[in-house]
Design goal:
11 strands, alpha+beta, Nucleoside Triphosphate Pyrophosphohydrolase, two-stranded parallel sheet
């Protein structure tokens, strides 16, 4: 968790999604969704996310629960890992996930920690979820994805490696490599919305990068 300090008079609890944009005028140090999060916040154990507007300007900091419940826009890293055969590794999200349980997602993904760069977030998530180093990771771009469940600025990365993968079973229910042919046939209903959009936006670019490594 990134370093963060707060002034207690700047903690704001807000649970009205319809009026949440008003809260940023008060310039809180941190926005919470419920008073039950206070203890974890003050003990440094609450997951905090940086929040942005639709143009990518930072608005402030909120708890993960506030971000999701109030439909705020945070930042995440999505990593697409290919092997030397050109196969793409996808993970199926664990059933205990708060959003899209049991859906296929990119090889590794996760929210940015506070003050973390896109590259730092991508490398950390790849290590945590797959057990591999991502020193040769490549940044492909960034796009906004807003669904009824959440809003995100997504930074997209890819990595080509044959390093053995060790999945984090607390985060992933199952995972496998897909050939490009298999990927074209997969039921789109089992993909998280962001993954469906990413494959449309970036798959050609990924295949072009793959051709440079073969």
């Amino acid at each position: 968790m990134g370093e963060f300090s707060i002034r207690s008079e700047k903690i704001i609890i807000w649970n009205d999604r319809k009026t949440v944009q008003k809260v940023w005028r008060l310039k809180p140090d941190v926005l919470l969704y419920s008073a039950s999060e206070l203890e974890a916040l003050l003990s440094g154990k609450l997951e905090l996310l940086e929040i942005f507007d639709g143009k990518g300007k930072k608005l402030g900091v909120a708890s993960r629960k506030a971000s999701h419940k109030l439909h705020l826009i945070d930042k995440v890293a999505h990593v697409f890992v290919f092997n030397s055969k050109g196969e793409l590794f996808l993970q199926k999200r664990a059933m205990n996930k708060d959003v899209f349980p049991g859906y296929y997602a990119p090889s590794a993904s996760g929210h940015f920690e506070l003050n973390e760069t896109p590259l730092q977030a991508a490398k950390r998530e790849t290590k945590e979820e797959m057990g591999i180093n991502a020193e040769k990771i490549k940044h492909l771009g960034c796009f906004k994805c807003v669904t009824p469940e959440m809003g995100e600025w997504i930074h997209v990365f890819m990595l080509v490696t044959n390093e053995p993968i060790k999945i984090n079973e607390s985060e992933i229910s199952e995972a496998k490599f897909f050939s490009i042919k298999e990927l074209s046939r997969i039921d789109k209903k089992v993909l998280i919305p962001a993954l469906k959009k990413e494959l449309k936006l970036y798959l050609k670019k990924m295949l072009k990068e793959l051709s440079k490594t073969s």
